Amino acid sequence: MPLTEIQARNSKPRERAYKLADGEGLFLFVQPNGSKLWRMRVGALLKSGRERLTLAKGG
Fold it and tell me: What is the reported pTM?
């Protein structure tokens, strides 16, 4: 199930960083300082294994 805009906006920082999955490898990474990064797993595209690509930064 895709992550909604409300869920993304309402995500609060925790003691440890955490991910909110959006599907197909896309996720919102919420850091303890409150910053939010949209990231995507791109391992299928790279030979070196699973890597992460930061798409946008919000906070």
Answer: 0.74
